[in-house]
């Protein structure tokens, strides 16, 4: 009597799935539907596969592989511009209130270490004003947002040395988280920063930061599609 065919072992199925993911990533134009289906069961953590798959599914990388380098350079340049605009005084944990929705409001240059130049304040403006155009109110809202981001970043996965500790590596990662969250808040005035966004950012940053491709890891998450992801859950 003929024996029934042997069922594939879990390890064999996993190798087969990984091979299909690698094959999907090797195409000149990525089929996102196919990749999404394969990734639904988990993405292997090796050779930068997870990082690449996440970037594609989040829309950070285009489907056409030939455009990847060009698009990466564009996004990195854009993020550096955002840092220059919104994080002019990040040394020592302070940053001035820049613009919103991607444009400076013109007030940041008149603020130094949290103090306003009285000559630049409207005559009817005062420290208790709640008006959106009030420079006093803008500084207060900015300071409140910075304090909330700082608190949450320091509480991000305190049991993981990657995010917490006295090492320069952990502090560098905290600074990167902080910068990304602040820039997101400044670019999205209607959403701003909401407590818990650090927890959404953390796994994305961790995966991208640990990309074995040094060039990608050094640039970390940067702006990425984190902003779009947050818009979808807030």
Structural features, described:
51% of the residues lie in helices and 2% in strands. It is built from 9 helices and 2 strands. The chain has a two-stranded antiparallel ribbon. Helix 1 (10-25) runs antiparallel to helix 2 (32-39) and helix 5 (135-154) packs antiparallel against helix 6 (168-187). The termini are far apart. Residues 87-110 are annotated as: Disordered. GO terms for molecular function: GTPase activator activity. Pfam families: RabGAP-TBC. This is Rab-GAP TBC domain-containing protein.
CATH topology of the largest domain: Helicase, Ruva Protein, domain 3
Number of domains: 2
Helix share of residues?
40-55%
> What string gives the helices and strands in order?
HHHHEEHHHHH
Task: Please state how the strands of the largest beta sheet are arranged side by side.
Answer: 1-2
Number of helices: 9
Uncertain regions spanning at least 5 consecutive residues: 90-115
The CATH C-level name of the largest domain is Mainly Alpha
Proper CATH architecture of the largest domain: Orthogonal Bundle
From the N-terminal CA to the C-terminal CA, the straight-line distance is 61 Å
- Describe the global form: globular
Main sheet specs: 2 strands, antiparallel
* Alpha-beta content class: mainly alpha
DSSP strand content: under 5%
Radius of gyration: 22 Å
């Amino acid at each position: 009597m003929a024996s029934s065919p042997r069922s594939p072992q879990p390890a064999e199925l996993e190798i087969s799935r990984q091979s299909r993911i690698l094959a999907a990533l090797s195409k000149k134009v990525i089929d996102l539907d196919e990749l999404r289906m394969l990734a639904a069961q988990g993405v292997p953590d090796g050779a930068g596969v997870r990082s690449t798959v996440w970037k594609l599914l989040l829309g950070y990388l285009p489907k056409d592989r030939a455009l990847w380098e060009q698009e990466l350079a564009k996004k990195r340049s854009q993020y550096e511009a955002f840092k220059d605009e919104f994080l002019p005084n990040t040394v020592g944990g302070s940053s001035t209130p820049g613009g919103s929705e991607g444009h400076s409001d013109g007030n940041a240059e008149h603020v130094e270490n949290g103090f306003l130049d009285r000559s630049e304040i409207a005559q009817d403006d005062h420290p208790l004003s709640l008006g959106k155009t009030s420079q006093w109110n803008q500084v207060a809202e900015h300071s409140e947002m910075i304090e909330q981001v700082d608190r949450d970043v320091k509480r991000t996965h305190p049991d993981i040395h990657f995010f917490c500790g006295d090492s320069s590596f952990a502090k560098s990662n905290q600074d990167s988280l902080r910068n990304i969250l602040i820039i997101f808040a400044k670019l999205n005035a209607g959403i701003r920063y909401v407590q818990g966004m650090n927890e959404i950012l953390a796994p994305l940053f961790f995966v991208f930061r640990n990309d074995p491709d040094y060039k990608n890891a050094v640039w970390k998450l940067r702006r990425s599609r984190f902003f779009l992801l947050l818009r979808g859950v807030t």
